[in-house]
Amino acid sequence: MTDTYNKQGVMSTTPEEVEFELRAHVGAIWTGGRLFIGMYTFLVASLAFSYFYLRSSNNSSLWRPNHVTAPTAYGWSIYGMMLAAGLLAYFGQTRLRKGEVIDWLVSCWIGVGLGVVALFLQIWELVVLNFYPGSSGYASTFVGFVVFNIISITLGTYWLETAVARAHRMRRDMGDGAVLANTAAGRSFRANIASMTYFWGFLSLVGTMFLLMFYVL
């Protein structure tokens, strides 16, 4: 009894238990990332529903008077940067799987830069709009889309930047091979990278859909 009391803070685990907990941790990251994208899809669906509902009803012909359109140069520029950031995240992950950590770091830092510029342009686009937010159905849904895109770019860029910062910290504290090592920290890090890359792929697909809706159709 005394021995048990003196060792309250000591947790006896076997290698099998440690491996099980690590797999559960990695699996939780994988599942959490996909669930986050699933929940985010509901936000996308609500915006798409409002767009097509107002467009199909076109009450008093106020859906899109005079075929007003948001600045297409901004739209294509923002979309191009988001798509490039997504492709760089995917390219960096493929290089990371081959052991090229520097290639992944460079790709991600470029992606962070593109995300910051895209975020600035998306905010600035609100300043140069040639219509008021409540002037038509198109205008109101477009402003909703801009708010959604600001949130999306911020989340994606923040996730990308924190992943790169974590990689630098791991290499500084545990050596250059820490990112690729078969340790708890390394495996957790790579699971996070997989979820982050998947999220950027999701943003690229959603961005393509909204580009067609608001700037092309």
Description of the structure:
The protein has 217 residues and is mainly alpha-helical. The chain has one domain: Four Helix Bundle (Hemerythrin (Met), subunit A), CATH 1.20.120. The protein contains 6 helices and no strands. Residues 1-5 have low confidence and may be disordered.
Structure at a glance:
The chain has 217 residues and is an all-alpha fold. The chain has a single domain (25-56, 81-216), classed as Cytochrome c oxidase, subunit III, four-helix bundle (Four Helix Bundle (Hemerythrin (Met), subunit A)).
Mean pLDDT score, rounded?
88
CATH class: Mainly Alpha
Helical residue percent band: over 70%
As for the number of domains, it is 1
Q: How many beta-strand segments? A: 0
Shape, per Cα inertia axes: elongated
Computed structural class: mainly alpha
Oligomer: single chain
The count of helical stretches stands at 6
Question: How many strands, which pairing sense, and closed or not: the largest β-sheet?
Answer: none
Topology-level CATH name: Four Helix Bundle (Hemerythrin (Met), subunit A)
Strand content: under 5%
What string, H for helix and E for strand, traces the elements in order?
Answer: HHHHHH
CATH architecture: Up-down Bundle
Tell me the Rg in angstroms: 23 Å
Low-confidence stretches: 1-5
CATH superfamily: Cytochrome c oxidase, subunit III, four-helix bundle
Q: What is the CA-CA span between the terminal residues?
A: 76 Å
